[in-house]
Amino acid sequence: MQINLTGHHIDVTEALKGYVDSKFERLERHFDHVINAHVVLSVEKLTQKAEATLHINGGKVFADSAHEDMYAAIDGLIDKLDRQVIRYKEKKNSHRPGAPIAAAEEE
């Protein structure tokens, strides 16, 4: 997965980049069809904001999170993305012909 990390009113340090990379490995464990990710870290007065767009096969997934601490905002962002990716994966798998759910309804 290719991760594009940009900062808006913030310097993206190696520590932040390493933290984002380590957190996005969690998404790769659940779903490996992520093509690339665009992550924007920004500061608005006292609020630290992290937002990301994932390009996956068949669509895009967007999430954002805001917190007083940038690391906490990144954690919240990854939690939201993880839930959305799992939901996308389940939805994609449930629409296959001959799925176990459809076979159970026929009986």
From TrEMBL:
InterPro entries linked: HPF/YfiA_ribosome-assoc, RHF-like, RHF/RaiA
Family matches, as Gene3D superfamilies: Ribosome hibernation promotion factor-like
SUPFAM superfamilies: Ribosome binding protein Y (YfiA homologue) (SSF69754)
A Pfam family per the record: Ribosomal_S30AE
Keyword annotations from UniProtKB, A to Z: Translation regulation
Keyword presence, Membrane: no
UniProt key word NAD: no
Subunit structure: Associates exclusively with 100S ribosomes, which are dimers of 70S ribosomes.
Family in the record: Belongs to the HPF/YfiA ribosome-associated protein family. Short HPF subfamily.
Name of this chain's protein: Ribosome hibernation promoting factor
Organism encoding this protein: Thiorhodococcus fuscus
